[in-house]
Design brief:
Layout lengths: L5 E7 L6 H9 L8 E7 L6 H5 L5 E4 L5 H11 L4 E5 L3 E3 L3 H5 L8 E10 L5 H9 L4 H4 L14 E5 H6 L12 H10 L4 E12 L5 H26 L3 E2 L2 H20 L3 H28 L2 E2 L1
Helix pairs in contact: 9-11, 10-11
Length: 298
């Protein structure tokens, strides 16, 4: 097979803990070295990220405007090849990652392809909970729901550069979350196919602390409101109430005391408590952003 050339873009902010294993996994890919390049975009880190990355045979770029959308745009616009693969610094690519994604682009109708996000071995009860709840998976993102058409999580994604150019890349107004869904939708609405390839895997390290998880789900709430505000007319809604989150908030509130007392195992005892806190923080981000944007999305 005549494999196409691919540029790999990795945005990173204060990722000294993860950047070396990430780069080493990319250097170990079963993909011809002459047909791929690795671009690391340092998003104004204050730790040793740039120093560590510069010790590897990669292109190291700097983007001082904070935000993963800005960093990714800087990366793909500097890329020399016509296929752009994205992953994050807290991911490790499996050896066949690129070779599983790239062949799909022989079909010129394909604009983007996402791969599987495998969870890293959990080392905390929070990581176990994230895995149990299926919070960050490509399969979940690819579901077609009323206000959320299928999209690719950019921690494991490949896009055609011409498609990125056609929609002018990531929307940099999405500063905390939602930029990946926004990009996929806009590319799909241009007529491209967005597909899923489960054999293309990266291993992802989930949030390991309660505060980190709660800030993440709050950011998701903020991102969903901005997505609705931007695309509500295309999605066919003037207002929308996502009842499932309120249901989870109420049910978990009443289940928590019983599970804390009678639950078997640490995780089972804590699931309703974490469900309640997660729903509360998600709604806090969603409602505050909806009020700020003056939209009926609650």
């Amino acid at each position: 097979m005549n494999l196409p050339e691919v540029s790999i873009v990795v945005p990173v902010y204060n990722g000294a803990q993860h950047i070396a294993p990430c780069i080493e996994s990319l250097l170990a890919l079963d993909y011809p070295e002459e047909k791929r390049e690795i671009i690391i975009v340092d998003n104004d880190s204050t730790d040793r990220t740039a120093e560590i990355a510069s010790s590897y045979p990669v292109r190291l770029l700097s983007e001082k405007r904070r935000g993963v959308a800005c960093a990714r745009n800087t990366g793909w616009r500097a890329a020399q090849f016509n296929l752009i693969a994205f992953t994050d610094c807290d991911c490790r690519a499996e050896k066949n990652w690129l070779s599983a994604l790239a062949p799909h682009f022989e079909d010129t109708a394909v604009g983007g392809c996402g791969g599987k996000l495998k969870p890293a071995q959990p080392h905390s009860i929070i990581e176990e909970y994230v895995i149990y709840k299926d919070i960050l998976t490509q399969e979940r993102a690819m579901r077609d729901e009323p206000i959320s058409p299928p999209f690719i999580i950019t921690a494991n994604a490949m896009y055609r550069k011409s498609a990125l150019e056609e929609v002018e890349g990531f929307d940099e107004s999405f500063t905390v979350a939602g930029e990946d869904a926004d990009l996929s939708w806009r590319i799909a609405w241009k007529g491209y196919k967005i597909i899923y390839e489960p054999e293309a895997c990266v291993i992802h390290h989930h949030r390991s602390t309660l505060w980190g998880l709660l800030m993440q789900v709050r950011a998701y709430g903020m991102g969903t409101s901005r997505l609705f505000w931007k695309h509500r007319r295309r999605l066919g809604y003037n207002s929308f109430i996502a009842r499932q989150v309120y249901k989870e908030l109420i049910v978990s509130f009443f289940k928590a005391p019983f599970c804390l007392i009678f639950g078997k195992g640490h995780l089972k005892r804590l699931i309703p408590v974490l469900d309640f806190l997660g729903a509360l923080f998600f709604l806090s981000g969603k409602i505050s952003t909806s009020l700020k944007l003056r939209i009926g999305f609650f």
